[in-house]
């Protein structure tokens, strides 16, 4: 079909504008997260930073230590990346956040490339898939957390990308596949095979290719997978020798067996939560309308195999945590973009369910102080974030965003998806703009010490309860002659001293007071909250 030259130029310009739009949105989020360091609010983050700091100070880069014992939970790749940046830039706080966000950016780019490779005749899927990810709150939440899962997600996507290139006859990508498997192994051990192994076996059978895949090709696949998995052994074997027999058993066996034998959650843990984690796209009508008319081809089957196999394995696996399936979010985004592209009949009211949900959350923020007064005490621990922010300001911003989604008319579905992603990005930036300065105070001992000094000047009664690990904080407790009360005596003491100040490391103590003045993350096992 003949395409006029001017029309072709207009289409190319439109594509460039769309690509620049998601780059602009993602850049706003990157700058916000790097400056405000949101990942530092996570329990594991302070632990990872402390381990990295100790490794660098002691010049011991082979064996990590935590609380005086060899640390066997994770391979040291993330620690090495943090130390490498600190060696170059100094011990700056923004570097660990930059690492995970850079990996998230690479994951976005590879996801877009995968869309082009899986659906070469449907360019709009590659256009909208970055907006699907940027608009997904759960993906953003995982992307900004300083965890090894960011490395694992990138390694998983890079493995798929490399294998597809190998199927297309580009043999040099076998080397990149080895690197991707090795990278995932260095990040979190052999768990990368959960996401990669079965899908990679089926991909050659499903994706059209020029050359016939022979048994020799599968032999090469097995060989490169084994070589990739052997790369982490370059660290694991020397570390096992240095750490001793017990440490060797931990890294080679017990870490997997321990998690596999836990039974903390039901088999359906991930299944029942996925609609919430994939919000707002789970209530976007074109997704479900596109599902009705979808003719499943081999490319959709490839994505489904990756998702279904991983979910089944992790559902059977004993320990279940949300960030375990973080590498699956880009695959979900590919399918969501495919379904949206499949629904050709555009309607300018398709954004209304999302607008209604945002308006509902705005109303919830306004009513939260009244709702919280009638909620059981056990609900408090899950909602303490809402008690530290300006709920009225939140509610007003959410309401404005919902009104705009209600009344702005969009000409195409692509513009509608961009608007939804933009709304989610604005809300994400706004939320972190209010919360993250508080988090920075949480990791600053001086902020806590100032409160204690104020209490001492006012001659208030101060007592402590819990296991305090920070030596500086322990010294302050001794200097101020702060009494430490056993945990079993604390409820009675709180009832008798309503005006006193309590310094505690136990989340269970939060049930006794309506609102902590400080929520202070010290280490994974020492959470300090100060009340008055």
Outline the structure in words:
The structure is a single chain. This protein has 23 helices and seven strands. It has helices spanning 5-36, 43-58, 77-89, 94-118, 123-134, 137-143, 149-167, 173-188, 192-206, 215-230, 233-243, 245-261, 269-277, 285-292, 298-316, 329-342, 352-374, 380-383, 391-407, 413-442, 445-457, 471-479, 490-496, and strands at 65-66, 69-70, 462-465, 483-484, 501-504, 518-523, 526-531. The strands form two sheets. The protein has a five-stranded mixed sheet with strand order 4-3-5-7-6. The longest helix has 32 residues, at 5-36. Mean pLDDT is 78; it is low at 1-9, 377-385, 436-443 and 511-528.
Write the layout of secondary structure elements.
Elements: H1 5-36, H2 43-58, E1 65-66, E2 69-70, H3 77-89, H4 94-118, H5 123-134, H6 137-143, H7 149-167, H8 173-188, H9 192-206, H10 215-230, H11 233-243, H12 245-261, H13 269-277, H14 285-292, H15 298-316, H16 329-342, H17 352-374, H18 380-383, H19 391-407, H20 413-442, H21 445-457, E3 462-465, H22 471-479, E4 483-484, H23 490-496, E5 501-504, E6 518-523, E7 526-531
Parallel strand pairs: 3-4, 3-5
Antiparallel strand pairs: 1-2, 5-7, 6-7
